[in-house]
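Handout, section B. The chain below has 163 residues.
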Amino acid sequence: MLKKQKIPVKALGDILSNFDLGKIKKIKPFATSGNIAYIIKTNKGEYFLRLSPYGARWRSKKEILAEIELINYLYKNKFPVFVPLLAKNSELVISWRKHYGYIRRIIDGKAKLNPKTREVEIFGKALGTFHNLIKNYRTKNKRNHIWDLKQTKKYFSLLVLII
């Protein structure tokens, strides 16, 4: 079962000081399906910090680099994504006590509970574009953590036993 994990305030400040985010106005934990995540509001905008947690959702540095490779590939192919920010030391991956992740600008959006047919079509086209872009794409860094059908079934079975 996933447990809510946090970063101590001092460690969070140390991480954020490595980026040119501007003056921090507010830091708010963000609920996810298991990642350690924060929304950071500054005088320069809003940012999203995400780190892998301990446990089933943990990712290695190479796995985070693979994710960043994919994001950069999508960006270069004009797919609408926000790329991770470079730290002052030119690193993309954040590392804190073997939690790895990155910071990017926040995607400002709202859930659409009752989309119109045209909006569903637009989304479908975007999803098709995404799938066509990644169909034969392979990252240099390899992912060990894959949530395929077998893994999903395994973790779902464990969750049912716990509940």
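Note. The chain has a mean pLDDT of 86. Compare this with the example in section A.
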